Description:
4 copies of one chain form a homotetramer. Chain A is mostly helical and about 270 residues long. The first copy, chain A, folds into 2 domains: about 1-120, Up-down Bundle (Four Helix Bundle (Hemerythrin (Met), subunit A)), CATH 1.20.120.350; about 125-260, Helix Hairpins, CATH 1.10.287.70. Helix content of chain A is about 85%, strand content about 0%. Chain A has 13 helices and no strands. In chain A, helix 1 crosses helix 3, helix 2 (about 25-40) packs antiparallel against helix 3 (about 45-70) and helix 8 (about 125-160) packs across helix 10 (about 175-185). The longest helix of chain A is centred in the last third of the chain and has 42 residues, at about 205-245. The radius of gyration of chain A is 30 Å and the shape is flat. Chains A and B meet through helix 2, helix 6, helix 8, helix 10 and helix 12 of A and helix 8, helix 12 and helix 13 of B.
Amino acid sequence: MSDFSATDLQARFERLRSNKLFELLVVIIVFSALLIGAKTYPLPEWSTTLLLFLDWAITIFFLVEISIRFLGEPQKRRFFHSGWNVFDTLIVVVSLIPIEDSELALIGRLVRIFRVLRMVSIIPELRTLLNSLLAALPQLGYVMLMMFIIFYIYAAVGSTFFASINETLWGDISISMLTLFRVMTFEDWTDVMYETNAVYPLSWVFYLSFIFLSAFAFLNMIIGIVVNVLEDEHRKLAMEEAAEAGEPTLRELQAEIRALAALVREQGVRR
Amino acid sequence: MSDFSATDLQARFERLRSNKLFELLVVIIVFSALLIGAKTYPLPEWSTTLLLFLDWAITIFFLVEISIRFLGEPQKRRFFHSGWNVFDTLIVVVSLIPIEDSELALIGRLVRIFRVLRMVSIIPELRTLLNSLLAALPQLGYVMLMMFIIFYIYAAVGSTFFASINETLWGDISISMLTLFRVMTFEDWTDVMYETNAVYPLSWVFYLSFIFLSAFAFLNMIIGIVVNVLEDEHRKLAMEEAAEAGEPTLRELQAEIRALAALVREQGVRR
Amino acid sequence: MSDFSATDLQARFERLRSNKLFELLVVIIVFSALLIGAKTYPLPEWSTTLLLFLDWAITIFFLVEISIRFLGEPQKRRFFHSGWNVFDTLIVVVSLIPIEDSELALIGRLVRIFRVLRMVSIIPELRTLLNSLLAALPQLGYVMLMMFIIFYIYAAVGSTFFASINETLWGDISISMLTLFRVMTFEDWTDVMYETNAVYPLSWVFYLSFIFLSAFAFLNMIIGIVVNVLEDEHRKLAMEEAAEAGEPTLRELQAEIRALAALVREQGVRR
Amino acid sequence: MSDFSATDLQARFERLRSNKLFELLVVIIVFSALLIGAKTYPLPEWSTTLLLFLDWAITIFFLVEISIRFLGEPQKRRFFHSGWNVFDTLIVVVSLIPIEDSELALIGRLVRIFRVLRMVSIIPELRTLLNSLLAALPQLGYVMLMMFIIFYIYAAVGSTFFASINETLWGDISISMLTLFRVMTFEDWTDVMYETNAVYPLSWVFYLSFIFLSAFAFLNMIIGIVVNVLEDEHRKLAMEEAAEAGEPTLRELQAEIRALAALVREQGVRR
């Protein structure tokens, strides 16, 4: 009997989960995001208490929502197989810890900010957008490694020669890599160059070769790959549409011609 | 009789509307644009009166033009269905209000500037250009939302941690979003970073992750989508050309092969 | 007899024109370019005379070369139909005018610099590159007009509101357009914005809407068009290659199937 | 007998070369890269000796590795046909020279930094990436030449007119080309322009025409070519996949239809 009632309860939760009521969630998340924004403005005394109250209301709402989703899941283990469910649970759990300490308060605020990311977890279109972004990453893996090697070599050369000229820009290899990223974005790169050019008159070769290697070639490569990935998906879609519209493949045409040839041959034999 | 004369008058207006005389309108708009430009230069005393006179002449010309177009429209209600007609009427009506006040004078000048936009409303090629731009927007809808969420989260984090460092750049969430847009365009972003890096030595992670997420991934995505949209139109055109040139589809070929097979089978039976 | 000798002479000039000897021209142009570069460095007294002598030698060489080409042309009138020939002749003629005046001397140096452009006129690959660039321009015509209208309207608004804030940046409509171009290239655009934002707190709407309209949408459009133009040429090439390789079109296949059907039908009738 | 043992030895080296043991090499190179990075940080006294020891250990490891590869090569002459082998050997040989002099020490450090490039020589994916980059270069050859001509002409004009205004930016033709590259990257280009605009009020034409010619047209061209190269490879891959999946070509279909027609004709004759 208890087993039956449990299944019954679960089914009811499941229905509740797929219910239109859950569209309320989007409104709550937007409201929670506005709350976060409001906190960054100077506010009157009385509103602080109100905000604190609303914050707890949202935390409790999220706790209830995730509990319903968990109870509505037929197989409890599979619930945590989804990265998004783990993320949602973490956000709620960390929000529950009462933090008064000024240092931890910042972390508490950070967690409340990350609640906005739940927007991505509940809108399917945003989830697929993020997934397609993540799907493009492995394709870029070796380009990234190549980029890193170029950055590393130039940063090593940079900190070897220029560290004595400007400690802030070329002090050690990690600072040098940051400076090189700055050069790659063309951000006041000539100021960096003119400074070292005064000591090593040929240092412009260092900067120009780096800019050509990194910015031009690699950025184009990345654009190329991204464009290709998008075209792939586009082509896939077009192919699916063609298949749905009933356009036969060349292989199907070949099969039909062969069947016809067999028919002709057979009739020749029969006669 | 009065009904007949009204129709007659309307037909005459309609003819006038499609008349070559309306090409004059382009010249008047260009002239009105030049007038707006001329006003930004220091001018001698006497020319102010001349400019005022010319301005009123153009306003009256536009009033006459829109009246003719309205009277030339067979169905009066449909006239305001077109957004461009509403826009044209608004521009004329607001121009008619005499404004002497120095505060309102600026608004009066603004309306006169927007008259130049009438160039877009009368040249069909520019209208289609604007329409294709607007048609691409819904495709970008979710990318824009994603972008906004990223901006919002980073701005919330930024104003939480950096507001005490630089009130002008990170004062509240809207100012922070403006600063992040600045970082995205690489405009003196290192100045912004070095300032916060002095307090939080790991703040470069904040900037670099933001640049990677926003500038690289999303800009490429937008380019990709725009390229795809353009290719779509291009492919559509190519397909239409192929269809016009009489190239058969694979389905048509399949139908012919099947008809042939039926013929062969039929002849085999007949014998 | 005199007519014959003229034709004979012309044929000989024609042969000379297509002769390998003309490859010397490339060397002379490169040498002339190096001379121009050398003049920008501080040089010893004696070399000035040498450079002057070499300069005259090159001018005379170019004069001889263009004369041979003109005399080698069978139809004298068609010679000036080519824009490049007109350009080459102009460069030589202007170089011949002796200029001593310090003001005109600059123009003389300019003409000598433009001699380097003759490199483009004699290397066919560079000529086609320039032609394909010029061929893409009409496609961009309306985009350019749209861009100009956007620039004009924003510049008019800018000089109306901001002229009193910064005369150097927003003084009149042409200066404002230059400032807007600067904003479009993201060059210290925040400095421009912060200045006007102090007076009109909503002026960021002006800048952001301008950046979105111009930089994002239009740059992407231009990229899209250029990519399409290039793809067109690419596809044309691919199609030609496919045709050369003997791959049949779908229409040819259709014709063969129909011929086969006719054959089957004919044999059915004959029996 | 000695000949046999040599072949035997060589075969054993060859096996060793293709052995999994060589995966150790990647670890050693990464370790050597970390060592280079570590040297840029301030280190305690005792670690200098340790680093020197590790450096020699790596040098010896590389010497052994390249010897094994050389001995494992069946045809000794072909070993140096590969550019990567020559590069690897050079790195090792230069590392072996003991350098104490402070001036040469920098070169010694440079060679040790270039060891990181061996990462590219041993990971095949990075090698193909670099090769595809180099393969795109000849395609860009004439665009590069065009770009150089544009730069040269503008630099010549720039140093002719602006050298007296700012010696640091327009002193001679090579400095001017560097300044123009800066303008092309939009790096504080307005500062450069405003300075010369004060003397020559029309100098903005110089900068704007240069930016349009170089940045817009050519950058797009380069992007277009790179995109095309990538699409080519993509299409090749797609074609190979289609061929593997057994999709027949149109030519194969044509051949089958013709065979069928011959069969029908033959049967008609036989009867």
